[in-house]
Structures are given as C-alpha cells and as structure tokens.
Write a structure and sequence with these properties.
mainly alpha; 46% helix; 59 residues
C-alpha cells in the first residue's frame, strides 16, 4: 500500500478508459519494483559431513 501512495493517492484521469490505463501502469511499475527487490537464491554447493550421504542432496 505504501508503494501505491508513492505514485499519488488519487487517480488523475477522469475518463474511465484512461483510469483503467493509469491503474495498469501503476500495477506494472509496482510489479517491476517488486521484481527488482526480490533476492535470487542460488545453491552454491552441497556440504557433506563425515562418510555418509549428505542430508542436503536428494536420494
């Protein structure tokens, strides 16, 4: 909700078609900002203890 307020609390357009376009633009921008802020988790290596099979790797 905080992100939406950063774009302005009210819709500037008066025409319903333009209001729809304005909302679509706001949602697209918020989705893009969210995608940029999302961390990408990558497993680098599995760690093995002792002589048995690792608990991190599937059987």
């Amino acid at each position: 909700m905080r992100c939406l307020k950063a774009f302005g609390e009210r819709i500037a357009a008066r025409d319903p078609d333009r209001q729809t376009a304005e909302i679509h633009i706001r949602v697209a921008l918020m989705n893009r900002f969210n995608a940029l802020a999302t961390a990408e988790v990558v497993r680098v290596a599995s760690h093995q203890r002792g002589k048995g099979k690792s608990h991190l790797t599937p059987d």
